[in-house]
Amino acid sequence: MAEYVAIDVGGTKIALGIGDEQGNFRARTVLATNPAWAPDIVSDNIAAAVRDLAKSAQIDLGSMTGIGLGSPGPLDGSILLDTSNLHGWKGLDWRTGLEGRLNLPVAVQNDATAAGLGEWLYGAGRGTQHCVYVTVSTGIGAGIIVDGILDRGSRGNAGEFGHIVLRPEGPECPAGHRGCLESLASGTAIAREGQRRQQESDFLKEVPTVDTKAVFAGYEAGDAVATAIIEQAADWLGLGLSYLINLFNPEMIILGGGVATHASAAYRDRVWSKAQARSLKALSQVVQLVPAQLGQESGLMGALAVAVMASSSD
Ligand SMILES: [Zn+2]
Question: What is the model's pTM?
Fold first, then answer.
């Protein structure tokens, strides 16, 4: 069975694995990273870690079919543009950097798209042809599968779902515009509202650091202010999902990411009822909303899926 190297690049660490096309890993490791590394150093260090991993597991790298990599975005093809938390890496070309050093073909997707591919091949979306994966964590992103094919866009950045503007006079987002979905419904937005309204809330007043988790805890405990914040965020997300339903007529929307995965069924129900109420009935009747299944594994499984999909489309 064909085997691949999977590389999941995060803000503070990189997860590496060697796995087969069915999603089984037989070796894995983690590499701590430094945002100040220069692009060449990043490639050197990852290539060395991959070689060490293969050696310790007695795997011949030459027998691998290819490498799949999930990277923070935005990307231009396989080139890393500006990422605020990996400032030294700007301009790094994943493909030329790793192909030359490891002598294997490299396929790259942004991390939300990669996680979406992982859920589609190995998780909740198995067997579907029209499926949208939405991740809600500190940011919001999406991976869109149309007719069994990933929609990449012209430069690999399709699915920047978090930056559709829903409320033009709303809060500013790091990308420099106002009122996008991310600024209204992400974990960052929920934490920001919790901090802003802390003194109004009997529950949040007692919390030393108000973060997303604390606001959700207040919601679970029935605190009125926390409930209002979470319901508002859920309503914005539901409105955003209604656009996906109307645009893509999917069979399934998979909700993943740290926020959506840990949230209660009541939150998801609220998101879903809003999405259904705001989209066309003929389309909303045929789409299911399901939670992501891969959890912590979604990054590495996603990178593996990137490699598998790239080799199958050759
Ligand atoms: Zn934005």
Answer: 0.91
